[in-house]
Fold this protein.
Amino acid sequence: MLIDSPRLTAADRETWARLEHYDDVLSRSPRLDRLADQARHAVAEFAAGGDYYVSTSWGKDSVTSAHLALQVAPDARLVWVRSKHFEMPECEQVRDAFLAVHPQARYEEIEVELRNPKRGEPGYAERHMDAHADHQDVLKEELTGRYVSGVRAEESRMRRISVGHRGLVTKGTCRPIGRWEATDVFAYLYREGLPVHPAYAMAVGGAYDRRWLRVHPLCSAPPARSAVYGGDGVHWEDTYFGDVIAAARAARRHLWP
């Protein structure tokens, strides 16, 4: 269920409609049933080890992991650590649609004003290039304890190594969809009628591959290789969220000398 947005163009909507036919076919594959069973088993194994929470960003992967985790424990604790000013629009709509069908979930939000400069703010370039800078790790600072995440091995080489070496369940973490591909995630969201953030359809009419579009705080430091299918993530953000970025920078001017 794609959340609607005025930011979507006619070409974006047409491209998404075509891709949903692909999702429909994959959603009926026995592979998806096997992956879902494996994910629920991982969550159940992890839950047996003690207290935990489910971390979410309201992107495709965390929505999928949260849905699977809540099938195992409908009253699980669900936490969103959000970036003040820089969160993408429509995250709240995804949240509301998801929680409406999971009334037993214990939901919490933590809003954080980031200390470090974001793209376009004074000191960003220098700080980003300094390997010894005191970069803020929001999740590590705000959340402690055992957690379920939407991390997938497909996303990066380091994650492939980690999932391959440590598996889906460790003492402190559970990655129920660690071995899923993005195509599996979209098929699962389609099959289960789960809310999908419109950012994944904001593909400039198909110029960007939706598998590598991300729901994340805007103007964050990019990964070593662009998460937007080798494309220009800065251009993508500025194309669809330029107004949000401008408002966020204006709201934070007082933080910088």
In short: The first strand starts at residue 53 and ends at 56.
